[in-house]
Amino acid sequence: MKKAQLIASTSEHRWYAISRDPARPHHLIDTNEYVVTTGDDSILCDPGGSEVFPAVFAALSEVIDPRTVQRIFSSHQDPDVISSLGLWNDFNPKIRCHVSGLWGSFIPHFGCSEDTLVSIPDEGGIITLGKAELQFIPAHYLHSSGNFHLYDPECKLLFTGDIGAALLPNHDCNLYVEDFDTHIRYAEGFHKRWMGSNTAKQKWINRVRELDIDLMCPQHGAIYRGDDVKRFIDWFDKLQVGIG
């Protein structure tokens, strides 16, 4: 089953990773969900597919009151990212989902109303959680034409959706990358095929090199921390994408 683990905190807010599930059916891709909370206000990042909603809800409920989830951030439109939105909306009709406006006519097919969605402008922006200001970082054309990441400058944490994703073997359930050289083999094919533009890649790299990052948190696979963040960015910089 999935479980929530604390990965970063300040005196004001905390990040939990609801991480990989060794008990999932093997025909489904494994996913990580993340929640950042102040205790009375929470943002759920990439809540996952409808099939994992019960597991995500149960794990999240172990660490926070799910009624504090007022907002959802969706990095992009894929079903493994956001097809549970209708179920979250059934639980709390007041939940609002921040996502690229490009997907405003597509995501309601997952079972929510147009009023549920809040469009993020192409250039990004700021969302506040208590005293924290989190930044929407554009990552367009890297897996999705309307794509964003979420950066927390206080926790030095960058949630990166599918960038940094690795399709790990089922026996590898580590929360963090433990051996970069071994781990990155499971990321290479995914990035070559699913990242569509070297130009977009370079634009993203130039932007994130300016950020102070201790944790880089993808939707699939393990979390990069410390020096492995720079190792990943350097590796991605050299990788030719849009092939495979």
From TrEMBL:
Keywords: Hydrolase
InterPro entries documented for this protein: Metallo-B-lactamas, ODP_dom, RibonucZ/Hydroxyglut_hydro
Signal peptide: none
Pfam families the UniProt entry points to: ODP
Residue ranges of every copy of the Metallo-beta-lactamase domain listed in the record: 30-220
Gene3D superfamilies according to UniProt: Ribonuclease Z/Hydroxyacylglutathione hydrolase-like (3.60.15.10)
Record-level Gene Ontology MF annotations: hydrolase activity
Protein name listed in UniProt: MBL fold metallo-hydrolase
